[in-house]
Amino acid sequence: MRRRLPAPLLVLFAGFLVARPAAAGSEEFSTFDVIRQEADDESLLDHLLMRPPPAWRDEWERSPQALRTSQGCLTSGQWSVDTQLKLRSPLGERARFGLDVRDDQSDRASYTYFDLSFRFPTALGTPGVLFRPLYDKSRQDFALFWETGAETTAVQTRWTFTLEDVFNNLWAFRQSRVGEISEPYDRHPYEPAIFLALRQPRWRAELQGQVLTPSRKSVITVFGRPGVNVTLWGTYARARLECRLLGLEWEAAGENRQAHSSEALSNATDLAGGDFRRQWSGETALRGSVRPNLEVEGRWLYQGRSQGSDTPYPTRRLDAVDRVLQLETRWSLRPHCTLRFGGLHDRITAGSIGNPYPAYGTRVESRGYFGFQARFGNASVSAVEGIELDPERYEVWWVHDKGFLQLQTTF
């Protein structure tokens, strides 16, 4: 007899205490920004339409060689890109080599990872090592991990311990230089992470969590300018639950990301001030079939955003809340072609002090959209065209309100 639903519900709430199957890095926290998102008055709507279609997930997880990319317009001059590539190859009878590429460029964060991994399966699980090469040797990462299960098993776990900037005065003192500036650590960062997935025919739960331990770095400048001490720490947690109940598909998810950085002259008594940013959200979704070829989905997302900074950063603060309602209809014309029609409504409450993007503030953003999903051989494509439903303070070309594209293929 299958387990009852309350068991995964308990796991969902526990997930907030424990964030990505692949090794993360300090760049995700150092480039994470909340105020920058206000440059795009519809940032959350854009990120929702950039999500890959849920129907593609199983193929991505089960394929050892696959590529997917989600791209879309943020502003008239900014194009968001989130690309992932994974390749697996045997190293012998059991050992495997892996290549994982992640390029994420948006108004939320900006980083590129090129990870080389080596896995050695055993009867008790799969230990492995990971190396992340970067041009500045002091920023290269090294990770140890242990995996059990796989994307096709009922239970999958992964524990990862990343040595951030491993060659920065950890084992090789002479490699502490970044570019033309020396940046040795006084307190080195590490990044433990955990991932857990439970998959059953009628429900699925995922937990992810990672912590970037507090670090302190001395930036030794050139040309007689005074040095600077900088710090950084961050955390990320995510939980997700899906189930089939009463002939419908239900979803619940939540995530929280936060980071803090500070800097001061090296001769200062302490690190006064700093920059703290946090973004968290909770969402629910419900979908069901009206007819065999017609599916309807409703989604509600509540997101909180805040960022505050003090000297030596520009004094500023932003607090904002997004409340998004999304309705979408998917009409399958044939097995490999689906039309999408939907709408998004975001009620935003925002207040700021010294905000470099003060033009928007509290507002309502609404958008209609239509698009399609199609499959050509091993490649799946999805495209969406937005329709502006609000009178904007800036010029909009006719009713066009940004475009979005997703591509996924296996090899």
Give the H and E element order: HHHHEEEEEEEEEEEEEEEEEEEEE
Percent helix, as a range, is: under 10%
β-strand amount: over 45%
- Uncertain segments are 1-20, 171-175
Derived from helix and strand composition plus strand pairing, the structural class reads: mainly beta
Number of strands: 21
Number of helices: 4
Largest sheet: 18 strands, antiparallel, barrel
Radius of gyration: 23 Å
End-to-end C-alpha gap: 38 Å
Quaternary organisation: single chain
Summary, kept brief:
This protein has 411 residues and is mainly β.
Mind explaining what this structure looks like?
It is a single chain. The protein is mostly beta strands and 411 residues long. It has helices at residues 6-14, 27-30, 43-49, 57-62, and strands at 66-75, 78-90, 96-105, 110-119, 126-132, 141-148, 155-163, 177-178, 181-182, 185-187, 190-199, 203-219, 228-245, 248-265, 275-291, 294-309, 316-334, 337-353, 363-376, 379-388, 400-410. It is globular and about 70 Å long.
Give the key terms.
disordered N terminus; 4 helices; 411 residues; single chain; 18-stranded antiparallel beta barrel; two-stranded antiparallel sheet
Topology summary:
Elements: H1 6-14, H2 27-30, H3 43-49, H4 57-62, E1 66-75, E2 78-90, E3 96-105, E4 110-119, E5 126-132, E6 141-148, E7 155-163, E8 177-178, E9 181-182, E10 185-187, E11 190-199, E12 203-219, E13 228-245, E14 248-265, E15 275-291, E16 294-309, E17 316-334, E18 337-353, E19 363-376, E20 379-388, E21 400-410
